[in-house]
Write a structure and sequence with these properties.
alpha+beta; three-stranded antiparallel sheet
Amino acid sequence: MHELSIAEALIEQVEREVHRAGRKGRVLKVELSIGRLSGVHHESLKFALDLLAPGTLVEKALVEIRRPKAVCVCGQCGGRSEIDQWPPGCPLCGSDQIMIEGGRELLLESIELEDD
């Protein structure tokens, strides 16, 4: 389960950012953006965070995950379609001349801390 290593890296990133900001408060909330085509299973990531969080700054923090869709842009018909999974071709005309925009991100969007 690669979500375990992602959770570990995420906790380290949060701790680095909090220390870099010179803050000492407990982390109340972490907001993530995990694209639907990222290959990261968001429920497994939450489970891994629950497993690894005790004893860290993110212990008991609320984890909110936004799951943006991707957009398929067709070079043949010019169509744009929101997608949840990799299409074999353009959902509108079937062409294989497609480009995928977004949906692959894995970003730490924000960290909310209690007051020092």
